[in-house]
Amino acid sequence: MAKAGIQNGRRQERITFEEFDTYAGEYIQAIGKQAGAVENDAPTRVAIALGPQYGTVSAAYVKKAAREAINAEGVDLLCVLGFAFDAQVAGVTQEDGVTVETSSDGFANVAGSRKIGRIPVLMVRMNADLLMGEELKKTGAGNLFTVFGEPDIGIDTTAEGLVVNLKGIDVYDPTTGEVRSNDTSRIALWMIDTDYNEESFFVRHCYFTGDNDPYKRLKSALKADIDADAWDSLYKTVSRPFRKPESGKIAVKVINDYGDEVMKVFAV
């Protein structure tokens, strides 16, 4: 992390560190001093909480790490690192004591910026290459710790059923500590589980979008013609209508051009 920093997908927007101090906490392992963070109230002291090597980071883990960061002296930002995050991490509410802030050549993934008490919390997806250990030195792999913003989703009730509208992504800018809204140009694929059971994500709707139209690549890969009207029904940011789920919840999964993903759960 000292060499790679933390990215949000734009090369000029990266958390870089001058130094790290170890921290003997239950959840926090280190506190880093951010390099060059002197303008726009950007965080300067960043607590690092390393999630499990195997398994996912839970909402309970994030809240406990945040409480520990609040008690640490002079911490401005908490970064929770993990290879995967529970869907509930992206779906936390004010009832959980968490306030979600809404206001990418993209890389590996995060579930957005939120505050627990006074501490902004950033969930940072670690690249699976880190599991290679010593072999990683031979690959020259970069973009090991990255942020992919939380999807901005609208859900409308129509006469034909529920309709999901993908508006874009809210991206955290580590150079200013602010969250800004972005469009759908860097989103490659998004999917809906229209009856989410809180255990498994079933792809019931699937759509493509973004600047890089995959139509040509798909046509080349299949070595066949594709029905243009059928493709238009899939290349969109507004879903087809669907009935209200029996479970009372839907899940939306968004994937960027680099294969990074984030999922958000909604009660409907």
Content of β-strand? 35-45%
Q: Which structural class should the secondary elements be placed in?
A: mainly beta
Distance between the termini: 40 Å
Give the topology string: H per helix, E per strand.
EEEEEHEHEEEEEEEEEHHEE
Number of helices: 4
Helix content: 10-25%
Explained architecture:
The chain has 268 residues and is mainly beta. Helices cover 11% and strands 37% of the residues. It is built from four helices and 17 strands. It has helices spanning 59-71, 87-90, 215-222, 228-232; strands at residues 6-7, 14-15, 17-22, 28-34, 45-50, 77-82, 98-100, 113-116, 119-126, 145-146, 150-158, 161-173, 178-182, 187-193, 205-208, 249-256, 261-267. Residues 92-113 have low confidence and may be disordered.
Structure summary:
Helix content is 11%, strand content 37%.
Features:
17 strands; Immunoglobulin-like; about 270 residues; eight-stranded mixed sheet; about 35% strand; about 10% helix; 4 helices
In terms of topology, how is this protein built?
Layout: E1 6-7, E2 14-15, E3 17-22, E4 28-34, E5 45-50, H1 59-71, E6 77-82, H2 87-90, E7 98-100, E8 113-116, E9 119-126, E10 145-146, E11 150-158, E12 161-173, E13 178-182, E14 187-193, E15 205-208, H3 215-222, H4 228-232, E16 249-256, E17 261-267
Parallel strand pairs: 5-6, 6-9
Antiparallel strand pairs: 1-2, 3-4, 4-5, 7-8, 8-9, 9-10, 11-12, 12-13, 14-15, 14-16, 16-17
